[in-house]
């Protein structure tokens, strides 16, 4: 369990750098027996370690770093708070268009536009960063939005 009482992923390293324990199948909601680390060989499918950080201003730059794209200010603002935008290049070989992310850390909100889909994802508490692969915006209730390099968007809500 993480500090919010939610199941934690065995490959997630909190910002403090302390390893989190692997959840059981019951804790993770996964019907398969064993922990995720027992089912998945080390490093397979993750590109390395996952780092969890709170969704705040500092996380914005870390998201850009993990996706290997620049972060800029949006052409609009909230009263007293900045809004940020990130353009994630699409995967032309797979015919996937670019994704535009608008990050509102003060509102705990992420907007993602990719192709015909527009996702407004609110109540974001943490961001899981997989360097050079993807980022996962996590709600307190366990729902998440994944944004991968190549513009792929995945929501579990």
Structure description:
The chain is mostly beta strands and 157 residues long. It has a domain at 52-156. It contains three helices and eleven strands, in the order βααβαβββββββββ. The chain has helices at 25-28, 36-39, 57-67; strands at 12-14, 50-54, 71-73, 84-88, 99-104, 109-114, 117-121, 124-130, 134-139, 144-148, 153-156. The strands form two sheets. A six-stranded mixed beta sheet has the order 1-2-8-9-10-11, with helices on one face. Strands 3-4-5-6-7 form a five-stranded antiparallel beta sheet. Strand 5 (99-104) and strand 6 (109-114) form a beta hairpin. The radius of gyration is 16 Å and the shape is globular. Mean pLDDT is 78; it is low at 1-46.
In short:
With 157 residues, this protein is mostly beta strands.
Please tell me what the overall shape is.
globular
DSSP summary: helix tally: 3
Q: Estimate what percentage of residues fall within beta strands.
A: 35-45%
The tally of strands reads 11
Q: Give the end-to-end Cα distance, rounded to a whole number of Å.
A: 20 Å
Strand ordering within the main sheet: 1-2-8-9-10-11
Largest sheet: 6 strands, mixed
Helical amount:
10-25%
Low-pLDDT segments: 1-46
Q: Topology as H/E string? A: EHHEHEEEEEEEEE
Query: Quick check: average pLDDT?
Result: 78
Q: Which value, in Å, is the CA radius of gyration?
A: 16 Å
The secondary-structure class comes to mainly beta
